[in-house]
Amino acid sequence: MKYFQPKNIRDAVEFAKTSEAVFLAGGTDLVLQMRTGKIQPMALIDLGKIPELRVIQEANGSLEIGSMVTFAEMGQNELVYKYAHALWRACQTMGSPQIRNQATLGGNLGNCSPAADGLPPLLALGAEVQLCSGKGEEIVAVESLLKRTPLLSRDTLIQGFRIPLKGLQSGFAKLGRRQALAIARLSVAVAMEVDGDVATQVRIALGAVGKRAFLSVDLARELTGQKVNEAWIEKGIEQVQQVVRDALGARASAPYKRVAVAGILREALASFIPEGGLKI
User: Fold this and answer.
1) Burial tier of 136 (Cβ tally within 10 Å: 0-12, 13-18, 19+)
2) Which residues contact 57 (CB under 8 A, 6 or more apart)?
3) Which one of 172, 221, 223, 228 has the minimum C-beta count within 10 Å?
């Protein structure tokens, strides 16, 4: 097997164009797939030595996060905590410390597991992803990208993410089998703006409820423009249970997840709406 370690994005894309190679980010999923024979690439392109893929910065009205930033790095970063709290919370429970030190946000999207922890927060926060390939650069909403099949062409490099600084409050919660190495069986990310005590720009994303994480437009519509109180939360629970019911249909996990999502949504909201009032 050939192994490339480019020092810049241009060379990485060129290697991908001219060889039957796959990009290696954190490798937490790819290495396992190679060991089981699910993926047998002719070559690997290690992205670990490209500096611009490892930045976290505030620029041009957005929080910019490079694709090679690890979950551990995001989980310790003040900008992520301040501007993308839902993503920061997801970083606290993503796998073991060893996995968080290795797994990257770009790899999370590239592998696109239904249970990917980073995707619901990115969706809820309205993130865009910057892609680079032999055809040039493209900036596309994560929501739109997740509707593509295939997700990415083989030579497309995930360069980074842009989360608009819209003043959204956000939270995240998930249900896993084990606390330490929890793979999400169900996850919810919520983001919204608060005008007084009224919720505006509500965005709710779910993970591990379908083939890919997704935003629920209907759920957001039902909760936008209303006063945030216990009745509002109960309405959200009722509506999100309907979303899970519709998404899972007759799957064996459907009855359990319909019940469990009530607690997960409440926990996600409680992560930024303290008991007794809102953080304004």
Assistant:
1) exposed
2) 63, 64, 79
3) 221
Cross-strand bridge partners of residue 227 = 198
pTM value is 0.93
pLDDT at site 185 = 86
Q: Where are the domains of the chain?
A: 185-270
Round the CA-based radius of gyration of the chain to a whole number and report it: 19
Of 20, 19, 30, 23, which is closest to residue 9 (Cα–Cα)? 23
Residue 270 host element (H or E): helix 254-270
Tokens for 193, please give them: 């703006």
The tens digit of pLDDT for each residue in 48-100 reads 999 999 999 999 999 999 999 999 999 999 999 999 999 999 999 998 899 99
- Tell me yes or no: is domain 185-270 CATH 3.30.390.50: yes
Long-range CB contacts (within 8 A, 24+) of 131-134: 131/156, 131/157, 131/158, 131/159, 132/9, 132/13, 132/156, 132/157, 132/159, 133/13, 133/16, 133/157, 134/13, 134/16, 134/17
Residues 6+ apart with CB under 8 A from 254: 244, 245, 248
